[in-house]
Amino acid sequence: MYRKCGNMKSAFRMFSKFSRKSAASYNTMIAGYWENGDIYKAREMFDQMKQQGVERDRISWNSMISGYINSFLFDEVFSLFRDMMKEGIEPDSFTLGSILTGCADMASIGRGKEIHSHAIAKGLQFNSFVGGALVEMYCKCQDIVAAQMAFEEVCERDLPTWNALISGYAHSNQNEMIGELLQKMKGKDDSAMQLFSEMQIENLRPDMYTVGIILAACSKLATIQRGKQIHAYSIRVGHYSNAHIGAARVDMYAKCGDIKRCYHVYRRMSEANLV
């Protein structure tokens, strides 16, 4: 209760009253400290476990790793990961997926590949959490080919995984590749539009973020027909009044040279905002 309320002083007083402290109580304190911005106190608790002879389980290590990632202390993340391996604690999907998220934030493809190799060794590259983190990491490191390969290995793709790959395509600096990826849904090669279609086939409803990404890509390439398809979809699923989607539609029509439709969308947005 105290942890969730951010009252770590009261939580520590309660913790101190325990005559015998378990790994579970230590783990609660570790998570509580870093969640409330005190990563150094969290590490103090983590180190105290070893000093007091309390076994640090995988949850302890994962919690501390998450704390470092949340605090953007990425060197400490990898140092702790290596210590974890030395102590014989096997990383799980949460460990690897969390560290890959850190690699994505750093755009560190070297370290990301190191974690990818651990995932392959344990057969975790098929896991949706790890696989999705791999896709995001490779996209942010601008290796869209590796991102596609990681995506294809994921057994059950969730919405964030799809969004990560579509975003990677849309923001790739290789404009000719984006052009290929945005071919019409009927015929020719696989594309970002095709991915958009496949999401719906797999019963994953593209969200506002997905729609915004595709509209931004259409805007970049001045592909008005494809942009209109996504515009129609956004109306059909009730995203029409969303400000983020509306701004993306205005930008797309403006860059495609359809000033009349651009003004119409902008006016509808203004009317909705006034209401």
Write structural notes for this entry.
The protein is an all-alpha fold and 275 residues long. It has a domain at 158-275. It is built from 16 helices and no strands. Helix 2 (23-35) runs parallel beside helix 4 and helix 6 (93-106) runs parallel beside helix 8 (128-140). Mean pLDDT is 78; it is low at 181-190 and 271-275.
Secondary structure elements and pairings:
Blueprint: H1 8-16, H2 23-35, H3 39-51, H4 58-70, H5 74-86, H6 93-106, H7 109-121, H8 128-140, H9 144-153, H10 159-170, H11 175-181, H12 192-201, H13 208-221, H14 224-236, H15 243-255, H16 259-274
Brief rundown of the structure:
With 275 residues, this protein is mostly helical.
